[in-house]
Structure formats: C-alpha cells, structure tokens
Amino acid sequence: MRLWQKVFLCTLALVMVAVDLASVFILKENINSTLRSAEEAAVRENTLLCVNISNNIAYKQLRDDLIQMSREQVNQVIDQLVRSQSSSGTDLFVFEGENLVTQNGNTDAQNLLPDDYLQQVQKSDECLTMIVPDSGGSYRLFAGSSLTLGSSIYCLYTCKDLSQTFLQFQEQWKFVKMMSLFCSLSIAVILLGMVYFLLAPLGRMNRTLRQMAQQGDYSLRLLEKGSAEMRELSGNINRMAQSAETNLQEIQQIADGRKMFIDSLAHEMKTPLTSILGFADILRIKREVTPQQRQEYAGIIVEEARRLRGLSGKLMELAVMHHTALDIDAAPVQEFFNEISLSVRPLLEKRGQSLQVSCDDSQVIGDHELLKSLFFNLIDNASKASREDSDILLSCHADESELCFLVEDHGIGMSEEAVRRATEPFYMEDKSRSREKGGAGLGLALCSEILQVHGGRLKIHSEKGVGTQVYVFLPKGGRAE
To answer: Which among 32, 93, 333, 426 is most buried, taking Cβ atoms within 10 Å?
Structure first.
C-alpha cells in the first residue's frame, strides 16, 4: 500500500470516528436534556397536585367546621379533584398503601410500576421519577410522591406518555447517521484532494530519483518549492545529487588518470627495455664486435638500465608514500640546507653549476628523508632546465604560520599548460629532451605527494626563456593532526 493511501485511510478513519463520536455525544446530551426537562415538569406538576389536594381538604374542613374528616370524606375529595384533571393530558393515580383510591385514565399503573419503586415513593419525602417502557414500545414517565392526610398515607402518581418524544429521538438518530455518512463522504473527497496535493512533491522526487538511478544522470535537479519540509528535502536531494555528480567526476578523473598513468608507464618502460634488448642481442649475435662498439653498446645498456632503476625507484616511492609512517623530526633550516647541498654537489659540479643557499634561523619539522628527496628532485629539475655555469637558488623564510622555500633557476622555463600539468605523473613538455636528460616525468608528482602527507602545498611560477620559481609551503609547527 502506498504512502498516500495509508495517509488517506488513516486520516479518514480518524475523522469519521471523531464525527461519529461528536454526533453521538451531542445527540445523547440533547436526549438527556429533554428527559431532564420532562422530569422536572412532572415533579412540578406532581407537587402542585399534592398541594392542591391538601388545600382542598383543609378548605372543606374549614367550610364544614370539621375537626377531622373521615377516611371516606378524604377519599371523596381526592376522587373529585383527580377526575377534574382528566382533560390535562396527564394520568393521575392515588394509592392508599397498596390499594388504588382513584385514577383518571386507563393506564394499568399497578402492573407497570415495579414494587420497589412504589415502596421508595411511600418512604420518601421527595418526588421520585421513573421512565417505564411497556411491551407495545411505548414509554411513560411516572412521578410519585407521598402525602399524609389525617392518619393515612397516600401516594400520588402522575403519568405522562413519552412515546412521541422517543420517536423523535429515533428520527434524530437516523438523521445523525445519514449526516455522518454524508459528511464522511464529503470529507473523504476533500481529504483525497488534500493528500494528493500535499504529497505531489514526493511523487516528483520519486520520479527524479528513479530517473537518476536508472539513467545515472546526476545532473537532474528538483525545484525547491512547496512547504518548508518539502523545500528542505528537495534541497538535501539536490545537494546529494551534486555531491554524487562531483564524486563521479572525480572517480572518472581518477580512472582516466590511472589509465594515462599505466599507458605512460608502459611507454616509458618500453623504450629503455627495447634499447637494452636490442643492443644486448647485437652483442650476442654479432661475431665480430670492435672494442669501441662494445663500449658504446654497453654504455647505452647501462644508461637505459639506470633509467629503469630510477623509474622503478620513483614509482616505488609514489606507491608507498601514503602507507609509510612519517619519522617526524625538527632541525634548523641551515643544517637541513647543508645536508641537501652535500647531496646535490656532485650532480651540479658534473654539469658545471652551483647552488646558492639563503635562509633564516627557522626550524623545519617533518620527515627529513622525504623532504630531502623533495628538494633533490626540485634541484635536479632546475639543473636539467638550466644551462651550464649557471646558479640555482635555494632559500627559505618564515611567516606567522608557514615556512616558504624557494627553488629558482634561470633556465628554459615552462609554458602555462606545462605549469598546470607539471605534477601529473609522466607529463613532460619536451619528451625527447627530458629523456635525453634522464627524466621520466615523475619528479614533481613525487614532490606533490610528499607535500600532501606533510600538509604542505606547491606553487610554480615560470616564464618561457626566463626561468622557473618553485615555492614549497610547509606548516611552521608540522602537520596538524
């Protein structure tokens, strides 16, 4: 069963129960109010008759100058008074003990009234009422009170027919049931429209989500309209779709990057392997090889093997970068730069270049071996891009929160696209020149990974024919946990 059906049926059931209960309550209150009014009127009428009988007997005693009236005289006065009330529409009964003295109607009170009621009236000083049904479906209201006349106790009963009143009650009950049914049907139609209107946004959301799931199109968006809850839900779904779309794009970029990485790796490894296999095969097959040729072929095989070793080493560093615990230490920048200078001096002297160092008294905090590898790669790139007999600058200064390192050269520089893609694995602007210099396009990618695990960042500024400045920013207090 759908949500709108559950909401509709539950709400309709509650409304119908509420309407029926309210109708029954109002009808019962009306019935009780009518019966109370009828009982009060019967009590007043009974009391008035009792007073009238007492007054008539007292008047007869005074008129006839009687000290005490006999029982027959009292019964005669009561009989005359009761029969004179025959046109009032109320049946009267007077009992002395259990004996009927007189009555003005045909109602069989002795058979209709219960014995306990008759006894209660005889013993009570108040007027007691009782509604008595008969076998014919009629209802009668009896009001009885005791009256002491002389030495005898009389009981006066008034009887009023309430059949018409109860018939009206039945008609009202039928009317209430018809009205309840009509109101329930009307409310059902109105409620169905309201439920459909209020839950229509959920239908739109459901259709949009189904379309996203079936087609994988996360660019779809919902209109944020309707009630506050629906607007909030639509906004959350839109944000979820935006996040899913962004993540999907990132995953696609990662997949594309990995494919490009694998393609580039296969290409970079294929070239030196081809050279190694080719020249080794020549040395194996060729019968006569001059010493000069042997030295040349062996030199090529050694250089290509070195390329493979460097390539595999950097690939290994990239692979284990995020799975190796950092050995965090602190050291003065001056001492750190001295260690770097000792490491790169043979490389620079071989190319006729020099390293100029400038720093303040700050301290560098991090994994020094990884950071040395970072600056070795940056200085190696600067050396490859620079001409012989040129200088490479390595400097450092600190601000409030960061250490800023600079590796600057005055070499060939890079284009804007090369700067933008410099940290991509295997990217080389001039592949032939980079291979000639022994590069594989992994140096800056490795630098970027090292900075990432240290919470730092890399910034490159370069201009063709002028040179390149590589800025390295590291947190002054080490990477925040």
So the answer is: 93
